[in-house]
Amino acid sequence: MSENTKDEAHAGSFGMRLLFTSRGIERGELAELIVGAVRSMGNSIVAQKGMLIGHVKAFVSVPGGSLQVNMVDLDLGPEKEDRLPEGAIVEGEMKFMAAVVGLTDRELEKIVRSNLEALGPRLELGILGHRHDH
Amino acid sequence: MIVCQLAGFLGSGKTTLLIRLGTALGRAGRRVAIIVNEVGEVGVDGAVIESNGLRSVELTEGCICCSLSGSLQNTLRQVSTEFEPDVIMIEPTGLALPNKIKQIVRTSMIGEDRTFTICLIDAFRAPKLFAEAGAFLGRQVDGADVVAINKVDLVSQEVRDQVEGTVRGITSSTPIVFISARDGQGIEELVGMVEEVL
Predict the structure, then answer these.
(1) Can you tell me the distance from the alpha carbon of B111 to that of B107, in angstroms, rounded to the nearest whole number?
(2) What is the ipTM metric for this complex?
(3) CB distance B94–A55 less than 8 Å?
(4) In this structure, is residue A9 part of a structural domain?
């Protein structure tokens, strides 16, 4: 197939997979951090492109549970499916992915990376991988 | 065996619907295999599907309607031989074109009885999406056996009618169903449509 539909739609994408550790973060605070990061990525996309035509999502897996956050519209805000366990969380894996019409892969990479910096003070992050693939 | 494709633009609710349909068909005793592919490639959708108790094969590093067409064919052959499913459900990226995937399925020689394509339209964002990417969405709708107007729990009857009118401007004959993959509204009807072609 010679046609590339990502190019045809003028879309960009970027995703990152990270490991995190913490001295012990409560479920609610972790969820708030991830929801905040997804929201701020959406805000940055709108600031740069003028609108969000696509989505930003995150998935966090920790021993005994998970958290899913998805945002497709700033007015609706991030939607979350919170299955995190009670008690202090000390480690886990998180994935962030953004796919948006009207921005390049590199522009999205900058947005995702810069908004992940907000997690730094509460979580120790280690990058496992990142991709721009179609 | 049928191949059921859940097409639709980025953020239209494909993964949520896939979980609903996969769970319903599984409960009805159908053997369901799931192949998932997404534009960002770090595998969020596969993880979400698995966290809901379903198993999936995730295809990464490209889009199954173009750069990964060969991988899709290999995976279809492997899944149909090893798992012998009643339904193979495919969730392509939000930037894939259903007609291209149909063609790839057809030439993969897995002996499917039919390919059934559901195209999701996000009712809440439809006016904005059609304004910004209308031609592309039109090509997605064009390849559908049924159009599922999703997120109807978030919009008024007036908006629902407007979106229906927009879809009817693309296709005058394709059946339209109104659903909310999130709260389950209209899902039974869609499951019934899949069961009918099985």
Answers:
(1) 10
(2) 0.87
(3) yes
(4) no
Which B positions 38-57 lie with beta carbon below 8 A of chain A? 38-44, 47-48, 51
* Interface contact flag, B51 A17, Cβ < 8 Å: no
In whole angstroms, give the CA distance from residue B51 to residue B139: 32
Nearest-CA residue of chain B relative to A97? Answer: B40
Residue A100 domain flag: yes
pLDDT class of A133 with cuts at 50, 70, 90: very low
B34 φ/ψ angles, rounded to the nearest 5 degrees: -125, 130
Looking at the 3D structure of chain B, how many domains does it have? 1
Integer distance in angstroms from the first to the last C-alpha of chain A?
Answer: 14
Tokens of residue A121, six digits? 């003070």
Q: What is the pLDDT of residues B15-59, one digit of tens each?
A: 999 999 999 999 999 999 999 997 766 778 988 998 888 989 988
- E strands present in A28-109: 54-62, 65-71, 79-83, 89-101
DSSP secondary structure string for all residues of A31-42? HHHHHHHHHHHH
Q: Is B98 helix (H, G, I), strand (E, B) or coil?
A: helix
Report yes or no: B18 and B46 within 8 Å, Cβ to Cβ. Answer: no
Residue B171 confidence (pLDDT): 97
- Expressed as residue numbers, the domain containing B166 is 2-197
Distance in angstroms (rounded) separating the CA atoms of residues A96 and A15: 5
Specify if A5 maps to a domain. no
